[in-house]
Amino acid sequence: MTSIQTILIALSLLICIFASVAFRSRLLYRLLAVFFFLVATGLVMFPNATTVIANHLGVGRGTDLLFYIGFLAGIHGFLLLYIRTRRLEQKMTDEVRAIALRDARRLGS
């Protein structure tokens, strides 16, 4: 095993541990973090596997396949964060509106 493989496996283990701590009450997310750790370890240990998988999917190189997957995952993550921000803004608007109406009723009495 080369030094870069050791570093990459150690970093993916740290990410898995961080994800497990961050998602402490969500079993599905914790299992997903472990799954990604195992996949990352397998791909680091056997780097030619990405090329084999890419060729079966009709992509020329494994690097290109990983780039496409990473790009789509980034867009997905961005959209999830955007939707969450919009929901939080709507909740905040509803709370401020309810407080304003309550205070207006109290002042009007």
SSE sequence, one letter per element: HHHH
Q: Report the C-alpha radius of gyration, rounded.
A: 23 Å
Q: What is the overall pLDDT average?
A: 91
Structure classification: mainly alpha
Residue share in helix: over 70%
**Count of all domains:** 2
Oligomer: single chain
Q: Hey, roughly how much beta strand do the residues contain?
A: under 5%
Characterise the protein shown here.
- The protein is 88% helix and 0% strand.
- The chain folds into 2 domains: 1-46; 63-109.
- It is elongated.
- Helix 1 (3-22) runs antiparallel to helix 2 and helix 3 (48-57) packs across helix 4 (62-108).
- With 109 residues, it is mainly alpha-helical.
Can you summarize this structure?
This protein has 109 residues and is an all-alpha fold. Helix content is 88%, strand content 0%.
Q: How are the SSEs ordered, and which strands pair?
A:
Layout: H1 3-22, H2 27-45, H3 48-57, H4 62-108
Helix pairs in contact: 1-2, 3-4
Supply the key terms.
elongated; 109 residues; 4 helices; 2 domains; mainly alpha
